[in-house]
Structures are given as structure tokens and as C-alpha cells.
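Sequence in, structure out.
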Amino acid sequence: MLMKTNVINILLAVIISSAAQKVSFASPSKPITSSGGVKIVSVKDYIINPLTYEYIRRGLKKAEGENAVFILKLDTPGGLLKSAQEIVKLFLNSSVPIITYIAPKGARAASAGVFISYASNIIAMSPSTHIGAAHPVVGGGSWGKLSKNVKEKIMSDTIAWAKTIADERNRPVNFIVNAIKESVSITEREALNKKICNVAAQNLNELLTKIDGKTVTTAKGKVNIKINKTNIENIPLTIREKILNTVIDPNIAYLLFTLGFLGLIVEFTHPGFGLPGIAGLICVILALYAFSVMPVNYAGFILIILGIIFLVIESFTPTFGIFTLGGITALFFGSIMLFNQPLFTRVSFKVFIPVIVSISAILLFVVGKAIKAQRQKSKAGKEGLIGEKGIALSTIHKKGKVRVHGEIWDAASKNRIDKNDEIIVEGISGLTLHVAKKEMIR
């Protein structure tokens, strides 16, 4: 009986101990305090793209490794939705406080920048900045040929995704939905009043002062932000990221493609030089890399190629301007249509107009000259003597001697030619020149 009682007491003790542990685990824990360090990544008017994502990920990983506060200094016209989605995932699953600071004055967080900002723990804005205009753009600034059902699916999916971000960060849903549906955009003052923006700051120093001591919720729980202004690190783009980010710029990619293709054309029409072909091939490959990242409209891509080909045809076979006009027209419309999302990815008129004029002039002049040079008769060897003038060194009646280019040749003629008469070479047979008296040539 005593043994039975002891067993019951032991079981009760185990149950009570287990329950106590559960209560202890369930009790609210104190916020974690950040290390005081600050890591800053700057997106300076860049398009949100895979390289931007890599850059932000690298900076965020460094901040997480040091339990530091992560600040994204943002100024962007927008970018690719897929890249924005990847960045949002990083932010929502991060263990450190994330602050998106829309700066400097005049900066904006448009399109993809809205989703990235909303996914941050704190949104800060400089004076004279704005946020909004997140309407999905497909097919050259419009919905293109997408069916109504597809358009509705894209819009519904984007809105649903935006709502989950707003709910996760406890921000107003109405604004981001209107930014998607109606391309609504608001200033920093309106954003503060609507509780979209958490902090207004003139500069980085003011921002750090205002966020010091705030508590935010991360993937690992509540974190109390501690700022040590002596431990601030600006993380720059690596050389690789700088180069590739430059290549991805729409204007640079356009220049690489058009000028690279021009180099290949010059090499094919005037072989042997090498440099235009090598440089052209490198430029075209770099341009194709950029096009693989950006939303390219292949109709525009084909029109640009077609335009250059038309100008080359004009150089080969002059058609009184028909192919020139067609080539310039194709280049113009191809340049406008090259990218599918012209609100933030487009080629500037200041870039492609001079390029079209230059390409037209180069192809019509340089390539034309190269082709004419290829068609000219050879100036070297025996063939170079045909049509040349000389002097009869003896009376030529069927056979005789002539001097051409300072050289003495055997000569033959169907008609009599007197000594010292001026002759013209009509042909060559072995080492004998067939000549005629100059005044007899018609």
C-alpha cells in the first residue's frame, strides 16, 4: 500500500514539474537587445532587379551575423516584381530590425519599392519624398494582349500578397491596395498622418536618434533597438555588382546591343581587322545578359536588328533611300518598344535618337566605303595593270615593247602603234600585255 502511494506521489511530481515548465515557456520573454551596430545598404535610384536582391541579401546577412540594425536607404522608381518578392521574403524572415529609409530629399519608393518598404519593421522618410504607384505594368505600359481573366488574376494575386505584408507589419491595408489598383502616391507628410511612415528624419543622424530605444517584432521575437553611433558601417556594392548593375541599366544595355551589333556588321563586311568583331561580340553578349534580367519586348528586339540589317542592305545595294527609311523607322520603334515596363525600364530619347543617327551615318558611309573598296579592281600584281597607261618603246605591229609603271613588257596589238605613242593596257596573257593606242580607245 505504501509502495503504491509512493508511485502516485512520484507521478504527480512529474506532472506538476512538466506543467510548470510549460507555463515557464509560455510566459512572455523579455525583448532581445540589438548589439548597437548599424549596417547600411543604399539603393541609389537603381531598378529593383536580381543584383539589387543579392546586394540587399549580402548586407542583411552581415547584420544578422552581428545582431545589428539593418537600414535600407532607398530611392527607386520600381523594378521587377519577382525580385521585390524575394526581398520581401528576406525582410519578413529576418531576425534583426529592418528600417527602410526613403532618402535623400526628392527620393521615392515607387512600384516594387512600396512592397519592400511595407515589409520593413520601420518606414522612415526624408522631407520631399513620396511612396506609392505600385500598379502592375505588363506589355509596353499597358496590359497588352492579356485576356481579362489573366489581368484579374495578376491583380488579385498582387493585392492578396500586399495585404499579407500589411497585416504582418500592422500597416494600413487601404493605401497599398489603392497604390496597386489606382497607382496612388503620397508624400511623407501624408504617410505620417496615415501611419504608413513611422519616422520622419532630415538625415541619417536624426533617424538613428529617433529609432534608438524602439522595440520591433522580428522573426525571432521582440527586439529592442540599441544604436551605437560609433559602430555604423556603410556596405557598398562590390566591383562585380557595380559592373553588372551598370550593364543592367536600360540605356547601357541598349548601347551595348546596338553598338555591339554594329561592330559585328562592320567585321563581316570588312574582315581581317578583328577589333570591331571582338568588341562587338563582347558587347552583344553583355547586352543579352542584361536582357535576360530585364523585361524585354521581343518585338522591339527584332525591330532593332531588322533596322540595322536594312541599313546594311542599303549600303550593299543603294535603293534611293527605301531601306534607309525602313531601317531608321524600325530602329526608332524598336528602341521605344524594347522593354515591357516603360514606367521604370526604358531607353531615354536622349540616348537612342543620337544612336540611330550615328548608326545610320556609320553604316551608310563607313560600311558603304568598305564594300566599294572590296569591289574595286586590284591595284597589285598583273591585274593591277589593266587600264593603266604606258609608252611604246618600239613600233608595235602585232608585237613590240612597252613601258608601264617603269617596267618594260612584251606587248601585242591588233593595230599598228608607233614608237613613243601613248598606250593603254587592255589585258594580259602570261608575260605579254595586250595594248591599244590611247586615241583609239572609245
